[in-house]
Amino acid sequence: MSAIELRGLTKVYPGGVKALDSLDLAIPDGEFFALLGPSGCGKTTLLRTIAGLETATGGAVVIGDRDVTGLQPGARDIAMVFQDYALFPHMNVTDNIAYPLRIKKVGKAARQQKAAEVGARLGLEQLMDRRPGQLSGGQQQRVALARVMATQAQAFLFDEPLSNLDARLRLEARTFLKKLQHELGVTTVFVTHDQAEALAMADRMAVMESGHIRQIGTPAEVFQRPANTFVAGFIGSTPMNLLDGVVRGDTLEVSGCKLAVPQSAEGLLHDGEKIVYGVRPEYNVYSAGPVDGSLGGNVSIVENLGASYLVTLDVNGVLVQAVVPEGHEPLIGDEGYALPRRDRALIYRDGELVPA
Amino acid sequence: MAQATLPPEVLDDAKARRYSADAAGLGRLRAGAFVAPALALISLFLVFPALWVLYLGLSNYRLTGAAAAAPQSVGFDNFVKALTDPEFWNSTWLTFEFVLGSAVIGQVVLGFLLAWIMRDRTGPLKRIVEGLVILAWILPSAVVSFLWVALLDRDDGTLNTLLHSQDFAPLLDHPMLSIIVFNTWRGAAFSMMLYGAALGNVPPSHLESARLAGASGWQQLRDVVFPHIRGHVLTNLLLISLWTFNDFTPFLLTAGGPDGKTEVLAVHVYQVALQGGELGYGAAVSTVILLINLVVAVFYLRLLRSKK
Ligand SMILES: Nc1ncnc2c1ncn2[C@@H]1O[C@H](COP(=O)(O)OP(=O)(O)OP(=O)(O)O)[C@@H](O)[C@H]1O
Ligand SMILES: [Mg+2]
Questions:
Q1: ipTM for the complex shown
Q2: CA B90 to chain CA mean position, Å
Q3: In percent, how much of chain A has pLDDT > 90?
Q4: Is B60 inside any structural domain?
Q5: Minimal CA–CA distance to A110: which of A97, A121, A122, A123?
Q6: Quick check: A99 contacting B, CB < 8 Å?
Q7: Are the beta carbons of A80 and B213 separated by less than 8 Å?
Q8: Chain B residues with CB inside 8 Å of A86's CB?
Q9: CB of A139 closer than 6 angstroms to any ligand 1 atom
Q10: What is the rounded average pLDDT of the residues A213-229?
Q11: Domain assignment present for B14
């Protein structure tokens, strides 16, 4: 069990794609760390470079107190779960789980016992003699996890291990994986492009954009105080409202409406400066009648979210979204007012959060 | 297809059977007319000669002389003669050496190595290597044989000229080795292409997962690659074994010599039937070759099926 540290890690693919751009990251021992970002931002590349499946163009990978940058994958003492699980189709579950031990020349009896032990822990007792082709997706996923656990590696790397499961199994697997990781206490890096997964499971997470890390923090930090407009727009089941505005004395002018300065930015803004005003739809209080300091306009779209409604207002040509509890949803064309919560709204200057 | 468009009650059992036998809905006669030309050609060039060989094998038909004009049936005499003739057994043994050396070992190993080395490579090196290997395969036998003779010949061969020597004569000193090397060189392209395609089917994540476990190159081959391409290996072995078994090209290099040391079965048949004029006996030997081919094919097909 070891910490992972990346120093100035750069990866340029042949052909010139810069997938990682001098990236620094420190993951303490035992942490469950999620890498989140849009498709093509370099998450898989980062994971594969840690694993040694891609050679770094520059920078260093340190696992524990060893610099492993130049080492072969097999010498790094890490284990990885692939998106397709990569179970060997011609071996049964026991042999699959025991494979890394076989390569490490562990005796047959010892490795079969270890496989049985780990398999039992993941509820695979009944399946140990089956081939991967005779297992369901969820079972295959557990076999892949068992194989990783049996290695007793310094760190685990997961590349979207839940993306092949159906929605329900995914929720189960999420809870299961988190519990397992906490019990084992092995440093784990987890790639996902599902932010709900990252928010739910991670101790800490990083949001990536085209080879850079845009924010590192706990899920709560990243959700409540996105460090920049990219993260703000990326995180959240409904995207944050990001509205252009100008500071007018001690108020803000945002698309023709007069808003109060959010608590977090009080006293930090200068008269006349351009800012971006950010507020999540969940933190916009909706009302049918005019309210001071709110964004007023006409309802243009009403979407059903289940227990609530997402209402889109057209505020002088700018779209503003608010979440309205069920039973209070307006009709399209109605007049409506969204009052941002001052303790939750955020101010971005040049794309960065104020105060940083 | 046809059933689906009809209401089910219209279809009694007999009708259903007739429809399934006539899937295209053409009627037997018209369907037969479509395949007749192909069947006629196959009969003319494959079935008839095969039956003719069976018939000839039971006769004393010769290329010249009285028996050429009025061949007589001799029963199984030709077969008895073949199976008791040490020259036939010698040829069989030589053929076995030739197939084992040049196909089962030479082409499979060389073809696989080329495919394995080239698997992740792109660019000019890969294209050049593949081009050269495939060239050896597609050039006509007469041309490549002439080139090899020109290279290896004792008197005016390129090799001896380059070495300024007179005594390097592989075709005379190591004739079997020469034709094995020749046939390996000539046929490796097929195996290379087949394995190249097969290796493309091995999921990269499986190899990577083995690498992460610390598997060496050989362990990756054994645990990941080979189980995935086992069917391809068997198919490849079946095809090249049979092709090599019936290959006549060694004759163009050594003419079966020196001293019968490279008289593989295909050459042996040519020698007895066309040089010796004993067409009946040659046909009998051909029939035996056919039977050996069948045994080899059944053996491989069994192995292939046992995989599932
Ligand atoms: N083998 C490769 N050769 C060249 N470019 C590559 C290669 N693999 C990935 N890339 C490029 O590197 C960038 C990062 O790719 P990567 O696979 O790391 O993205 P990702 O964040 O994992 O995306 P996704 O969420 O879609 O899996 C992309 O622009 C991609 O096109
Ligand atoms: Mg990816």
A1: 0.81
A2: 21
A3: 63
A4: no
A5: A97
A6: yes
A7: no
A8: 203, 205-206, 208-209
A9: no
A10: 93
A11: no
